[in-house]
Amino acid sequence: MLKFTCMKATLLCILAFISTTCLAQNGFFLEPGIGLGFSNVKASGPPDEYPFSYGPTGWYTKTKSIFTYNPSLLIGYKHRGWSLTTGISYLRTGYTDDQMFFLTLGTNEPNDVMTEYYYHVIIPLIFSEQFKLDKHFFIKAGFGFALSYNTSAAEKFTETGIYYYGGAGIKQPLTKDEFDQTYFRVVGWEILRLHLGYKVNDQLSFVAGPEYQFMLSSFVKNNDNYLINRAYTFKLGATWSLKHPKPVTPPATISTM
Fold first, then answer.
1. How many angstroms separate the CA atoms of 104 and 92, rounded?
2. Gap between the Cα atoms of 92 and 66, Å rounded
């Protein structure tokens, strides 16, 4: 009888330990962060044909990248080394073309620089796996998909030649009708990320690493052309567990008095 009681107690202790370990590795978390980097596009021809009278008439070189930013606030659920994350982020994409030509000049020399800016509100769904390196450091690799609501676009000209454009150097936003005429409001994306993390304690960790986001379909409505926006960023963020560890209660002592 005593032997059976000891075996039962040992089994209960083992189950309690396993249960405690699982609970410590599971739970919801918040992940605020910001990504900084650069953005460019992949296009089959002149990326944009705005309904403006001063629009470009040539696109003879590859586009150049612009600075981009990507603040985000995500919430996720972690189970052992796996996690599923969603939330909301804001992303600016775009490109620069420094070989713009205008018919009014009658010249073969580029005379203007045009920069395009696009703004997106993104809802991602990211799957990640975490690999422990030591007591504090870990690597977190993930991939996912997202939908963006593309809110607006703007362009800015910088004069380099003799042509004078009154709005040079100022961002010219598209109107709602102009945007809807040229671009889709909702587009799908793919997301790839690889982060190095540092675990401060059971609640707080810091992460940093590269992310790559790119459209899965064309941004423009022109059937004879395509425009794929891409963003390469380096993310800095934190992971905050929403499950607070319970304080350890010392075992009660039994008085012999």
1. 32
2. 10
Q: Is 103 in a helix, a strand, or coil?
A: helix
Instruction: Give the HSE-up count for residue 125: Cα atoms under 13 Å, Cβ half-sphere.
Output: 4
Both tokens of residue 251? 């075992």
Supply the mean pLDDT for the chain.
80
CA distance 143 to 130: 12
**Cα–Cα separations (whole angstroms), residue 16 to 11, 19, 20, 39, 62:** 9, 5, 6, 50, 62
Neighbours of 221 (CB within 10 A): 12
Task: Tell me the whole-structure pTM to 2 decimals.
Answer: 0.77
d(CA 165, CA 13): 79
3-state secondary structure of 157: strand
Distance of alpha carbon 102 from alpha carbon 163, whole angstroms: 8
